[in-house]
């Protein structure tokens, strides 16, 4: 009967692809009819994302959300374990979010189209000038009242430990003077391991922290804000079963820094 598991996995992947293509096509129709990018994002939170992780066989548990003003814009910063993090973030957060994503995703058929038409922000980390343009675009979104979600590690952790953080999101938060909300996720890396397509039934837990204020901060406070946010996220992550973090806190190279794994904390 072991042959059933690979077959089930293939069927799950087919359904996920078909569900994604259907959803993106429907989003395009909604955009044309409503001329409002918030409508497909709202429906993604309530329909696409929950169905996505259910098809994948995962079970997501969201810890009680903090009592904060959800009507104001935030920069949500989430640790990154898997491609499953994106639908989990959509489903867990009660607001429409725009992601900061790698620029190569804009060239992926259907996915890139959806991201562009709903106002996602693409960052080219290999080119400092283009990376800064992307961050300025994100700042404009925030000033227009939109919330942004970024993965400050800039890459997926292969062992679940939180990696060094890039500086870009913190410079953005200070420039826009909006609070940072840390979001911890655990289990998604086992539900869909990095670099693989083998979906596994596994519990995924999400915990959202209290906002970290940036009002009055300047560029000189950027690294201190990074360290404070990372410490808070590590604590949230441990509270939902996370394994901790690597020693190095600040990524060192590139426009926003580059992550280099270190020993665990």
Automatic annotation (TrEMBL):
Residues 245-265 are annotated as: Disordered. The chain crosses the membrane at residues 7-33, 104-123. Keywords: Acyltransferase, Lipid biosynthesis, Lipid metabolism, Membrane, Phospholipid biosynthesis, Phospholipid metabolism, Transferase, Transmembrane, Transmembrane helix. GO terms for molecular function: 1-acylglycerol-3-phosphate O-acyltransferase activity. InterPro entries: AGP_acyltrans, Plipid/glycerol_acylTrfase. Its EC number is 2.3.1.51. The HXXXXD motif is essential for acyltransferase activity and may constitute the binding site for the phosphate moiety of the glycerol-3-phosphate. This is 1-acyl-sn-glycerol-3-phosphate acyltransferase.
């Amino acid at each position: 009967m072991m042959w059933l598991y690979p077959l089930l996995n293939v069927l799950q992947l087919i359904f996920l692809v078909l569900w994604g293509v259907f959803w993106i096509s429907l989003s395009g129709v909604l955009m044309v009819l409503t001329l409002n990018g918030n409508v497909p994002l709202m429906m993604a939170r309530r329909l696409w994302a929950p169905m996505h992780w259910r098809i994948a066989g995962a079970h997501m548990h969201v810890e009680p959300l903090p009592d904060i003003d959800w009507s104001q814009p935030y920069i949500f910063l989430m640790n990154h374990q898997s491609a499953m993090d994106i639908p989990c973030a959509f489903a867990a957060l009660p607001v429409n979010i725009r992601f900061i994503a790698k620029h190569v995703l804009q060239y992926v058929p259907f996915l890139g189209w959806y991201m562009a038409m709903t106002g996602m922000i693409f960052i080219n980390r290999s080119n400092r000038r283009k990376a800064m343009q992307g961050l300025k675009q994100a700042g404009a979104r925030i000033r227009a009242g939109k919330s942004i979600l970024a993965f400050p590690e800039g890459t997926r952790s292969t062992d679940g430990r939180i990696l060094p953080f890039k500086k870009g999101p913190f410079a953005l938060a200070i420039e826009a003077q909006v609070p940072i909300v840390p979001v911890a996720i655990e289990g998604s890396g086992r539900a869909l391991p990095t670099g693989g397509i083998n979906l596994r039934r596994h519990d995924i837990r999400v915990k959202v922290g209290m906002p970290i204020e940036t009002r009055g901060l300047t560029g000189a406070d950027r690294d201190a804000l990074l360290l404070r946010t990372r410490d808070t996220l590590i604590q949230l992550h441990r509270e939902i079963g996370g394994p901790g973090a690597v020693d190095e806190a600040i990524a060192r190279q590139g426009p926003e820094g580059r992550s280099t794994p270190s020993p665990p904390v």
